[in-house]
Amino acid sequence: MIWRIEPKALLWAAVLVAAALVLVNLGALGAVISRSEHGATLTPADWAAARFTVTQALWSAALSVLLAIPVARALARRRFFGRGLLVVLMGAPFILPSLVAITGLLAVFGRNGLFNEALALLGIAPIRIYGLHGVVLAHVFFNLPLSVRLILQGWARVPAEHQRLSASLGFGAWARFRHIEAPMLTRVVPGALAVVFLICLTSFAVALILGGGPRATTLELAIYQAFRFDFDLGRAAILALLQAAIGAAALLILARLTLPDSGISGLDRTAPPPPGGLARLLDASSIAMAALFLLVPLTLVVLRGAPYILGLPAPVWLALWQSLKVATLSVGLLALMSAALTLAGLHRRWPEGLGMAALIASPMVIGTGLFILIHPISDPAHWALPVTAFVNAAMALPFALRALLPAARRAEADFARLSLSLGLSWRAHLRLVLWPRLRRPAGFALALGAALSLGDLGVIVLFAQTGGETLPMQMQRLMGAYRTGDAAGAALLLLIVALAGFVLVERLIGGRNADA
Amino acid sequence: MLTLDEVTITQDDFTLRADFRINAGARVAIIGPSGAGKSTLVGAIAGFVPLAQGRVLWEGARIDTLPPAKRPLSILFQDNNLLPHLTVFDNVALGVNPNLRLSAPQRASVLHALEQVGLEGFETRKPAQLSGGQISRTALARVLLRARPLIVLDEPFAALGPALKAEMLDLVEGIAAQNRATVLMITHDPEDARRLCPETIVVARGETQGPTPTDVLLADPPPDLAEYLGHS
């Protein structure tokens, strides 16, 4: 029985958000389709881009998840100094601007990177980071930690009794794997693969820096190139159509899999460590390799950027200001959209499904479509800020809802009857019951949105003219102009800004633990 | 008087029929096997479970059409009776003013209720800093403060040890006496029924039986209850 009538305005707000998302997605797709009818056909290069997009996403997903399994297992069953910090660090690449990570990877694996210097000492020819393996390497850098966290949650959900049972029955490594770990992994791994695959399918910044050329161009990158070098809207449109088709096909296939929660709980439970020196060695080396793989590039970003950060030229600081404006607007939009969809989604299904599919057309497809729509009536450069902010907010929306909706539904399940029996009005229920329960996940979600927006290099490149660049875009220009020192300084600045943005928003919105 | 007039509750393929009267001021236990529908019955009285048929009346006036807060009762659930982010004071104050904007006399009444359940000085604590017994006392302070004529207990003390549970039942008895309230209490422990409730309703096989004097019932239980209690 639902005795409390939710305000009509709330439902209307949710419908409005839904309409905006559907209109932008369909409008962009419609614009793209109408434009692509004029002339252009798919060239062999376009098909190559489509193939490369899928190939690199498959490789990235497979490697990220495969490598994540031993790391997650080691983290699940070992206690050591710095373990908590390492688990937190596993969340960091998610809020790390892609250009910063790429800078760090170049410092290790690039032409003059540490790795090649070491090879040179041994008299071995240097490796090249550019191309398929570079793109996959960068994707693994981002998605290995994400996969570790997802799989770690699978481990945390194995009942402690089962672990103790396996210890008390004297299971060996094989028996434990077969009866305890394998059943859990078959539930968790497909979802993790799907998440990483979907993320890599719309890769732009990584492909822009480490890919390129006929053999390593993703569709998102090809869309940008059609814009930037040829200003061929028809070709961009047909590429966008292809990207949208692949994305939709992947979603349809993967929709059957249950996607794992990207939650933040249950990561500190541990299983009893198995006996045996070999297992110990395996765990220790997995953890050490993962930590090195994540920490060395980031450390190099800090070390190489520090000498240049204060002397950065004026356009970089201007770009920082632009980035802050975009991120502020984006977080505001994200707050409105996720609040409306969460509250309307307490007792309904559609707001959740809609929010999860907020960017069913990829960022570049939306960008292309909006550009085509705006171009005849207004200068797209004037729209760079709102369009980027909106696309960033829509990118973060699925993650925000994944944090907010379960918490909101749990609060409702736990306290709705109490609140009804005491006669709390809808407003009082919101103020005294829901908001205190949602504050922390909301802080996390909006902080994620802030960091994503501050670090995003995406649709902005289609819209912004000189003077309107965001910080990541300005940094990419410095890299393109081989101004290595300034680029390193900008990378450090971007890293600091993204992390500070995350921490600031999380503290400001999330506050302290309300139950303590 | 609480009257359940030919009430039928249907949930999926579960049906419960209830037709009984409880006198004002009575203290009645509800006992029966798990899954028999004790919580469902209480939920229907409190307004959380819809009726398929029949009426629920209090002193002759129909209450099953009212929202939960307008019904003449206070209910304690098995858990989640307190909001974990609010202090003890605020949790009790919700009982006098759901918006927590209290007048001076209202504040005084909250403090008085806390004093009566023995929680003086605990006002600023949060539930996480309380023991199980103190959590129960906080919830009871709110029941005391609301002073509704019917108190419904859906096994709120099930997780407490025997001594603490007995203490809480005595506190309930005191509160009921002070407010001249009727008590309706779900339990799975016949000792609880003996301690607090002179009368008992049995819920089994989709029906309610009673109320019957608790002593008589427990001395010679009908077959369903005997099976549940383990006398055979």
UniProtKB/TrEMBL annotation, chain B:
Keywords: ATP-binding, Cell inner membrane, Cell membrane, Membrane, Nucleotide-binding, Translocase, Transport. This is Thiamine ABC transporter ATP-binding protein. Residues 2-230 form the ABC transporter domain. The lineage of its organism: Bacteria, Pseudomonadati, Pseudomonadota, Alphaproteobacteria, Rhodobacterales. It comes from Pararhodobacter oceanensis. One of its GO terms (molecular function) is ATP binding. SUPFAM superfamilies: P-loop containing nucleoside triphosphate hydrolases.
